[in-house]
Amino acid sequence: MHSTHLKNFYKMNRFYTVSIILFVLVELSGFFLIKILSPLITTAVLRGIQLMLFLIICNKIKLTNFFFGYKPYKATLNALLILFFSGATFLITILTAKYFFNFHILKLMLFKLPKNYSLLLLAGGIIGPVAEEFLFRGIIYNLIIKKQNKHIAVLLSALIFSFFHLGRTGLPVIQFAGGIIFAYSYSYSKNLISPIIIHCTGNIAIFSIPFFYKIFFLKQIFF
Hints:
The chain is mainly alpha-helical. It has 12 helices and no strands. The radius of gyration is 19 Å and the shape is globular.
């Protein structure tokens, strides 16, 4: 039994080390890619390569079940419940800020739609979130929780996650809040399916805000 436990320990540490090194190397290559590609295409390429490498390594050392094998139906339900309550909370916050404090949150989140909007949804709404969940919840959270309790692991992984987005979105308050939600959902479900569903849905919703702004009755109510 001790031999099996030791073997699994070394397997996980090897996965964490190799994955982080590869993620960083791919991320650094973005400084060169950005000179010949647009920022959106660069992001799509980087996240696609990182995700592919994570999946190859997982499959190679048979860790797929570690991240996705534990009660997937429960993890999916957990994600849907979190989406419902966090979405409701966000809407209440938006309406309260607008009608009681004359503060328009959604207007601050408006952005100019890129020409290749489908690529934005693919890169930022699907590929990016999945790759980031592998790194920040699958690896970083699991590394921190080895030495700290669950709540500290959640906060630290969320801080690292928000710091990662610092140069792209200004003050990443939404990313920090999202990081906490993603980490707790992973902590309770023990399955990356849960934070992946929440992360993808949240990003797609944010990227859809300019479309909601064009719909008259939604604009009047929420903006």
